[in-house]
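Record passed on underneath.
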Amino acid sequence: MAQQEYERYYVPDQSPWPIVGAVALFLIAFGAGNFVVESTSDKDGFGGWTLLAGLATLLVMLVGWFRNQIHESMSGMYSAQLGRSYRQGMAWFIFSEVMFFAAFFGALFYARVISVPWLAGEGNNAMTNEVLWNGFEAAWPLLVQPMDALAGGEASTKMMPWTGLPLINTALLLVSSVTLHYAHVGLEQGKRSKLIGLLGLTIVLGSIFVVLQGMEYVHAYRDLDLTLDSGVYGNTFFLLTGFHGMHVTLGTIILIVLFLRCLKGHFTPDNHFAFQAGSWYWHFVDVVWVLLFFFVYIL
């Protein structure tokens, strides 16, 4: 009877990084809460310093934990079973991100398609608009913001056009998905120069996107009077674009780390899940932007 072969199961050593990460998240939550209270009440406190301490602790945890992960991987400690676990974990993480943005898109849909028409008296809500101001219309964005209406004014918030910077940013992210895909192809083919060149170009495109989005925010505040106080349109606009911009920033940092690892000769055509995971994340961020560009800017 042939002896049954069992797959090697890797069990990592005990690590201090999970508890360090938990402490960092506690400091961030506690510090951020106190910082908001202190900034809105003009009180001096330690919220800001606590928040900075939490962010610094989180950075130390990320560097230390990923350094250990990279060392274990390059030392050949991992098994095929652990590789499958990583893939499952990354897939579930991206699924959670899908649900995260689905909630925000759902809020946008509810405000535009349900709430605003109801407030204008649509359906069985004929009396609703009478408790609002005279001349309320179901438009997106609202022709007159609530605070302006209560003050007796007629000022309105301008809508961010889809042309200009948003269109340029869309082109940048679409091109970056192509360059990253072919960088991945170069890695699978063992062409290191192609991998490094196209990955570097992807990082440049992502960085330009972040800079242009910052310029777009300056234009919104300074020229369009589009701020977080601009009613539900301003709230949903900055919520969706802001969180997406944060994800692009995080994705760019991930790609920079992968780029540095590629320069050190890490990854092989048969063993490069870290690169693949970063690629999955970047493509997901690009898909979210395409949806955001269509539903937030164009419609």
